[in-house]
Amino acid sequence: MSLSEKTCVPCKGGVAPMARDEAERYQAQTPGWDLTHDATRIQREFKFKNFAQALEFVNKVGELSEAQQHHPEIAFGWGHVTVEIWTHKIHGLHENDFILAAKVNELV
User: Fold this and answer.
1) What is the pLDDT of residues 82-96, one digit of tens each?
2) 87, burial (CB in 10 Å: exposed 0-12, middle 13-18, buried 19+)
3) Does 42 reside within a domain?
4) Is-contact 84 35, C-beta < 8 A?
5) Is the pTM for the entire model greater than 0.85?
6) Can you tell me whether residue 44 is helix, strand or coil?
7) Would you state the pLDDT for residue 1?
8) What span, in angstroms and rounded, lies between the C-alpha atoms of 92 and 55?
9) What gap in Å lies between CA 105 and CA 45, rounded to an integer?
């Protein structure tokens, strides 16, 4: 099953964040996303033709995030959106982060 076909399962903590090598394997399944913060977060920047398209994308990511109960950091402005994902409860990466990233990729 691909990552985008899975559903995020709320993380209650108490698990270790992914090691870099595991995160790199998941990253290979989420094109365009970069490992950041010493492989404890993933981030991607999306480009759009104007502010309205960027805002529309932000709203779609917000709706998806609510449905998945997993909420990224989102920054945007004229023609660009940056989405940053990590699991706050474990201060690092979890499979959920890559599931959300794969689903965000499908919104473009």
Assistant:
1) 999 999 999 999 999
2) buried
3) yes
4) no
5) yes
6) strand
7) 86
8) 27
9) 11
Length of the chain: 108
d(CA 11, CA 96): 8
Query: How many H-runs (helices) and E-runs (strands) does the chain carry?
Result: 3, 4
Phi, psi angles (nearest 5°) of residue 65: -60, -40
pLDDT at 12: 79
Residues 6+ apart with CB under 8 A from 98: 3, 26, 27, 29, 30, 33, 42
- CATH number of the domain within which 68 lies: 3.30.1360.20
Range of the domain at 45: 38-108
The stretches in the chain having pLDDT less than 50 are none
Q: Does residue 29 lie in a domain region?
A: no
Residue 18 to residue 1: CA distance in whole angstroms = 20
| Number of structural domains found in the chain | 1
Does residue 104 fall inside a structural domain? yes
